[in-house]
Structures are given as C-alpha cells and as structure tokens.
Design a protein that fits this description.
The chain is α+β, with helices and mostly antiparallel strands and about 160 residues long. The chain is about 40% helix and about 35% strand. The longest helix has about 45 residues, at about 1-45.
Length: about 160
C-alpha cells in the first residue's frame, strides 16, 4: 500500500515539474521579446538606466555600414547623440521573429521596420537582426546583436 502511494506522489511531482517547465519556457519567450522591445525603445529614448541594466558592459553590437563593433559605452553614446540631434522614434515593428533557446541563452532572429524623425525629417528603414539574450541574475539581458539594412516587405509607410 505504501509503494503505490509513493509512486503516485513521484508521478504527481514530475507532472507538476513538466507543466511548470513548459509554462515557464513559454513565459520566457515573452520575457525575451519584452527585453528586446525595451532595449530598442530605450536606445531611441536615450534611457541610459535601462540600457545599462539590459545591455551589459561586455556587449558587442555590429551595425550595417560601420567598420567598428560597438561596446556598451558606444551604444550609450549613440543613443545620447540621437537624442541630442532631436531624434524621435515614430514606428518600430518586428513583422517576423524566430527564437532559438539553448538553456540560459536565446538567439532571436527578426525582421524590423523603423521610422525615425531627426530635425523634422522622417526616415523609414528596416532590416534584419540577430540578437543574443542571456538569462542572468533572474532576468534576460542583451549582450550582443548584428543588424543589417534589408528592406522587408511591408516597410511602406
């Protein structure tokens, strides 16, 4: 009588763990996408506090048409320069996204569309991004990315 009860308890515990793991993985994808959105919007808003929290000091960013790779300091400087020029984010969309998860790391592949305004002149652009996210100290951070300037379909205003 004792043995079936123990087996039942172990089976129930395993089911709870499996359900919990499955739901947390789905929730993690949402958390990764929220982190991505926060990083992009923080850059355009020159929100240095959020950028420091989500983009670590060892970050490496590769942008189209630039020879140099960017560090966290360069990323913060770029955000400040965009705002100093009166830059504003008008539109940010990710029409296509695919996430690959490997433990505490995730790779996010996206197409993006963005519209900005600098000195009352609007620019519409887009491209593709490959971004790295790592789960560290209880939340997702974005230590690296590579973007290109490819105009996705649907980028018309």
């Amino acid at each position: 009588m004792k043995r079936p009860f123990q087996i039942g308890c172990v089976a129930a515990a395993l089911i709870v763990c499996l359900v919990s793991t499955a739901s947390s993985q789905a929730g993690d994808d949402d958390a990764i996408l929220r982190c991505r959105e926060s990083v992009w919007r923080a850059w355009f808003a020159n929100d240095a506090k959020t950028l420091r929290e989500l983009v670590p000091a060892e970050a490496i960013a590769i942008s189209p048409s630039e020879d140099e790779w960017h560090t966290q300091a360069d990323i913060l400087r770029g955000a400040a320069e965009f705002q100093a020029q009166g830059g504003k984010l008008i539109r940010l969309e990710f029409p296509r996204t695919k996430i690959q998860r490997y433990g505490d790391a995730a790779f996010v592949y996206s197409q993006f569309i963005l519209e900005t305004e600098v000195s009352e002149k609007r620019s519409l652009g887009g491209g593709r991004a490959t971004e790295v996210f790592v789960f560290r100290n209880g939340h997702w951070i974005n230590p690296g990315w590579h973007t290109d300037s490819h105009k996705p379909s649907g980028a018309n205003p």
